[in-house]
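job 3f2a | input accepted
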Amino acid sequence: METITIVTGLPRSGTSLMMQILERSSIPIFTDGLRKKDINNPEGYYELEAVKGIVKDNSFLTEAQGKAVKIVTPLPLFLDKSFKYRVLFMRRDLDEILLSQEKMLGKDQSSEREKFKAIYEQHLKKTNAFFETNEISYLDIWYKELISNTENEIKKIMHFLELSENWEHLAIPVKPVLYRNKK
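job 3f2a | predicted structure (183 res):
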């Protein structure tokens, strides 16, 4: 049984960027390309449509063995525990995430930010607890650090995933100009 590499995090936390980095590595990525790039993700989303149905059907995980797949939080709670996983957990300031989502949706949700923040915090806690309880190894990667301290963060990722590629090759997708919604 081959290990499945999961890229997770809240929406707008850098999961697509992490998939772009992994695409340059020796780990094949598992995506269907159905969701096209747009102004909000000019390099693409790197999603797999089957992930949206993971609550009822996680059979796509069989095909994900030996590959990297993006599964945003809290959907990892529905992973089939019979597989072996390692997880890159993308983290980003919640206020930045909410600002980015508002911009993406084109609507001001400032009156509901605290509610969304509480929901997201709960998603993160549940996902962390799931990984801890099921002894699934994960590495936290903070988006801001990945942008500002790229070499160090890429080397941490390489160590965690046991990659031997050149870190500069993996870092090519990291574009500080795309870090647009900052606190």
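job 3f2a | The mean pLDDT is 92.
job 3f2a | closed
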